[in-house]
C-alpha cells in the first residue's frame, strides 16, 4: 500500500478529469428528484454538496447540511448493482436469414466505468457478486467484462443513516478490501480535503498522477475520528453469531405469518439489495418473428411466478416468500458461497413501502425461538423422583 | 386472398381508448397488416369480413342486456378471445355503479327511465364467457398489445408479468415516490405492465392495471393511513378504474364512511 496522501478539492476534480481522459465513464452520487442517486458525473458540482439524508424503515428524505460535505449522505438510492449487473441485459439476438438463422452474442462494449464514491457496504457487495458471478465454474460473461474494466473509488462513510448496520456486518464505515482508491472526506479547521489511499496497482497509478501532499499525523487522526464517529452512529445493529442456526431453526416460526400480514410482496427489498442477483430469462420477438432476442432481467423471490415449476408456483404464500428471502440472505447464502448475503446497507429497510425492518424481524425470530426453547425445556415441574 | 389469421376488434361499454392504442402502434401497423387480416374493426375501417375470426380483441364491459347477448355471439365467432383494458377485464370505471343504486341514477338523469334498458352492475367479459388472454390497463400498453399479438401469431405464450409496478420502478431506476416523497402510490398492489409510467413522472400509481398476483391491499391501506391519507381518500384510491375487482372492491368498502346520513350504501357483488 502506497503512503497516505491528502488531496484538496482541486485535486479531486483533477481525479475525475484524469479518469475521463482515460476513457472512463465516471459514475457517482448526484441529486435527482430529491434523492441521492448514482449517475454519470463530470464535475464536483454534480456531487451532492451540502446534502445529507434521513432514512428510516419505509422513509427517505434528503436534508441540507451546513458543512458543504460532498459525501455527507449515507447511501445512494440504488447501489452499484444496476451499473455492473443491469436490470435488463441482452444476452443474444437471433436473426432469420434465407438459409436459416444467425445468432449474434452481445458483449457489453460500453465505456469502462469508474464508480466514484462507492460506500463500504456496496464495495463488499461488489466483492460478493465477484464471487457469485465470476468466481464459480459458470462465469457471467457480461458481468465479468464490465467488472474487469471497472475502477472502484470508495469513500469512507461519515454520516450513517437510521437504517445502516455495516458495522455489524464488518463492511464499513471504512471501506474494506477490493477498492482501487479509498478516500476519507475531512472537514475540520485544516480545511476541506480528502485522505487518499491506493489499494491496487491501478489505484496507485491514478494516485501517482495527482497533485497530493503527504498526509500528516493530524490528517490520519482526523480520518480515524470520522470512522469512529460513524461507527458510533449506526442506525441499526444486527447480532450475527447465531444467524445461520437461528434461521434454520425458525423454518416453522409463526413469525412468518406475522410479517406476511405487513409484507406487500412488492419485491422492492430484493430489487434494491446490492447482493440479490436473481433473474429470469425472457425471449422477445418482433411481430414478423424474424428477430428474436434473449434478455436476462431482474426477478425476485417475492414474485409469485418466480417459483413456478411444473404444475404451479411453489411459494404461494407471502410468508413463504419472506422466509425464503431472509433465510437465503442470512443462512443459505453462507452455506452456498461462504459469506453473508447481507452487507448491512439498510436499503431493504428504507425502500420497503411497508417499513419492514430486517434487523427487527431477526430479533423477533430470536425471541420466538428462545421462548419456544424455554417452554420445551423448563421451567420443570417439581421433581418427585427422590 | 392471404392465408393470414383474421383479427376482429369489438366494442362494449368503453371509451375506445384501448382500440386507439392499436391504431397508435404507428411504427408497427404495417408489419401487423402484413401478418393479420383486419376483418372487423369499425373504429378504423368500414370493411367487414364475416366471421368466424381467428383472434378477437374485446374492449369494454357488459352493462346492458343486449350486450350480455352479443358477447355470447362474439365468443362463438372467435378463435382466441383477448380482452383489452380495465373495462373488459374488471368492469371499468363504470363499475362504480356496482356500489350504488342504478334505478336512482336513472330517475335523476333521464326524463323517461322506462326507455333505458341497463343492468344494475357493470361486469367484466370474463364474467360472461371464457377469455383466453387478458390485457390490463386504462388504457392498455401498446408494447403489451404487440407482445400478445406477436406471441399469438408465433404460437408462443405471451409474456405478461403479474408482479407489482414496483419491479418496473426499480428496473428503470425510478426513485420510489412513496418512500422518498410521501406520495400515495398503489404500485405495491398493482400489476406491472405500464413500465411504471406515473412514478417516472413523479406521480403515485393510480392502479389502472388492477391488482397484482399477490395484492396485500390491507397492508398498503394501513401504510397510506400512516402517511396521513384520510379514510375516505383511501376508499377513493381503490375505487377507480378497477373498483370491480375483488381485492380493490373489498379494500375500498372497508374504508367507506360508516357514519352520517350520506354513508354510501353497502352493496355486495357476487360473481
Ligand atoms: S439484505 Fe438489506 S441491508 Fe442487507 S445488503 Fe440487502 S438490502 Fe442491504
Ligand atoms: S419486505 Fe417490504 S419491500 Fe420486501 S416485498 Fe415485503 S413489503 Fe416489499
Ligand atoms: S413509486 Fe410506487 S410503484 Fe414505484 S416502487 Fe414506490 S411504491 Fe412501488
Which range does the strand content of chain B fall in? 5-15%
Low-confidence stretches of chain A: none
Largest sheet of chain A: 8 strands, mixed
Give the C-alpha Rg of chain B: 20 Å
Q: In what range is the share of β-strand residues of chain A?
A: 15-25%
Shape of chain A: globular
Please count the helical segments of chain B.
Answer: 12
- Secondary structure category of chain B: alpha/beta
Order of helices and strands of chain B: EHHEEHEHHEHHHHHHH
Count structural domains of chain A.
Answer: 2
Assigned CATH architecture of the largest domain in chain B: 3-Layer(aba) Sandwich
Name the CATH homologous superfamily of the largest domain in chain B.
NADH:ubiquinone oxidoreductase-like, 20kDa subunit
What does it look like?
The complex is a heterodimer of chains A (386) and B (271). Helix content of chain A is 34%, strand content 24%. Chain A is of the alpha+beta class. In chain A, strands 3-2-8-9-10-11-1-12 form an eight-stranded mixed beta sheet, with helices on both faces. Chain A has a four-stranded antiparallel beta sheet with strand order 7-6-14-13, with no helix packed on it. Chain A has a two-stranded antiparallel ribbon with strand order 4-5. In chain A, strand 9 (151-155), helix 5 (166-169) and strand 10 (181-188) form a beta-alpha-beta unit. Chain A is globular, with a radius of gyration of 24 Å. Chain A starts with a strand and ends in a 9-residue tail after the last helix. Chain B has 271 residues and is of the alpha/beta class. Chain B contains twelve helices and five strands. Chain B has helices spanning 17-23, 26-35, 65-76, 85-90, 102-109, 142-154, 165-172, 177-181, 197-200, 217-226, 231-238, 246-254; strands at 6-11, 37-40, 53-59, 78-84, 133-135. Chain B has a five-stranded parallel beta sheet with strand order 2-1-3-4-5, sandwiched between helices. In chain B, strand 3, helix 3 and strand 4 form a beta-alpha-beta unit. Chain B is globular. Bound molecules: iron/sulfur cluster (3 copies). One iron/sulfur cluster binds next to helix 12 of chain A.
